[in-house]
Fold this protein.
Amino acid sequence: MEPDDLQDLPVERRRQDRRRRQVPVPNDRRQTDRRANRLEPSKPFAGVAVVVDGWPLLRAGVRQLLSDSAMRVASDTPSAKVAAQAIGDRLDLAVIGASKEPLEEAIKRLRALPGPDPDMPPRVLVLLERVDVVQLRGILSMGVEGVIDRSVGLDDLRAACERLLAGQRVLAGSPLSVLATAGLELQEPEPEEEERDNGLLTRKELEVLAELGRHLSNREIAETMHVSAATVKTHLSNIYGKLGVTSRREAVVAAVERGLLS
C-alpha cells in the first residue's frame, strides 16, 4: 500500500498500518549498537605520573583523566626539568606534549628517572601535533613506548595510557600512518628477551594467540595490539614453530589442548 493510499482509510486503520510499517529494534540490539561506537570501560590503573605541555587546558584535562584513574599526578608543567624535580623515588608514566625544552631533551630527562622497577624506566607517551619521518624515527630510537596524535580524544588517551602501563606499545593516528608510509616499524622486544608467561610462548605471542581465538585477521590483530602487520606475522611464525602447527586453526586447537587458551 502506498503512503498516499493511507489517507483514504479510517484513522484507526491508518494508525495500525503505520505501526506495521515500523520495524521495531530490540532493546538489546540498540544497546549493542551503542556499545560498538564507543570504547569499553577501562580498568583503573595506579602509579605516579607527570604531564608536560605548554597548554594549561591540555594539562588540566590529562591530569583529571589520570587522577580519575587512581594515578597520582606529581606535576603538570610546561617544563620536563620542573616535572623531574617533583618526582621522588618512582615515576610510572610521563605524558609529554609541547614542552619548553626540545622534545628529545624532555624525553631523555624523564626516562632517566627511576621507573616502577629497577630495570624499567618510566613509560613515556608522546603527543605530537605534526609528525615527520625524521622526528618519528628519532623518538622511536630513544625507546619511547607510545606516540599518538595531540588531538586524540580523552577515551583514546586513557586507553593508550592503560596499554602503556600494561607493558604494551602504542602507536595510533597520524604517527601510525607516517610509520607505515615510511616503512618503519615500532620496535618490539626480541622474543628471546621477552618475559615468558608459560615457559613456551612469550607474552606478546600469547596476546596474538588470544586474538586468534577471537578469529581476528592479521590486520585486526595489529590494530588491536598497536603494532604493524609485519610484527603480527613474525609472532604467528614463532607460534606455529613452537606449537608444531601450520595454520591458525591448528594453533588455536593446540593452544586449547595445552591449556594456553580456555
Observations:
- Confidence is low (pLDDT under 50) at residues 1-7, 19-41, 186-197.
- The two ends are 53 Å apart (CA to CA).
- Residues 14 and 20 are 10 Å apart (CA to CA).
- The longest helix spans residues 229-243.
